[in-house]
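Running this now, will post back.
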Amino acid sequence: MSGTAFARAQAYSTVAIALALYADLFGTTSTVEGLFGTSFALVQLLIVLPLGRKIDTGNAKRWLLGGLALNVLVFVGYAFVANVQGVILMRMAQGIGASVLWLTGSTVIGEIAGEGERGLWLGTYNQVGAFSSLFGDLVGGALLALYDFYVAYAVLALVTLAAGVGVLLVLRDDPGGQADPEEATGRETLESLLSLSTVRALVSFRLGLSFGKMAVITFIPIYARTAFGMNPFVVGGLLAGGKLTKALTQGYVGDLTDRYGSKHLFIAGGALVYAFGALLIPLAEHARAVFPAVTVGLPSVAGAPAGSLLLPPAFFVLAGAYMVCGVADSIRLPASMALFVEEGEQFDAVAGAMSLRSVAWKVGQVVGPVTVGALWDATSVAAAFALAAGIITAATAVFLFLYDSPHPHVDATPGD
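Update: finished.
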């Protein structure tokens, strides 16, 4: 399962840097760049609910293998795109593969983890994905800087194939078991899930959070490349900082949510920290008043000549902002996933609950990047990210207002 998370997250990070190169290569506007994120999410929005039902009632191992195979085909497609339309088409195909891998993997981990350890194991599973995403930022950025698209996508395909071999040889059939087709993620089950105050609060929250967060994820690498001319490896380095803070702390914070309870406070706190990180991004325009440009020497690697990398002042602001966002995700994610699993178990529909979680995310993910991109074209980068941060903050306030925990508070002390 860690292998599938590694392959999925590494691919997402490497492609995010490649999208910045495509934007530069094709001279796109911010609105079109927003479509890179919107097209990825739109197809996921359409498939996630039926996909959740299929996963609950089918063999999760086969779904994982199918998702990995689709990703390999996507890498081949990316290597040969010749225009913006081709990039958007591949983003849609990548969205399908990513949905299959994420939804299936999260469901399996949530179901096989012990009842009192879900925050720990879901946090640890996400931690693997975060480390892999960091790896994709650094290695993917280096491959795109030193070689070309073909080499980068070939490496992604090999990693994905290796993960597929691991699933085929090691993972048992029906990991987590199969639910009754009449009960799992059917209309009545989804209505029952939405009748729970916790689920309604979480779904409402994720609509706003996804709007702002996906704007940040989509535009940071593009902004770094098109506004400041950063080398792909430098772009990967600034993204890696956010993934590092997310990777180092998520398992530990997940354990804290298991021991202390009050998961809704972890969720709200993480969201507000993310909004703060989004507000820091436009300060990159003024970074030269505080930070100097730094040149870093590079040795010869894999036959490539020795050289140097320029870290412009904006690098330090963008890297710092994304590190803040990484800490925010560490605080929020384990608690959010654990709550969805707990609520879904009441109706034997964990994948159904995860589907609702994903659907709520996709709505904001579809609207957010293109809206922020259009606002950016019409006004400024500061206005665009202020909108993202404002909607995250408003969604957090709505979440706290709607949330009504059905579980007693857990009073615990370290070591209990």
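The chain has 13 helices and two strands. More later if anyone needs it.
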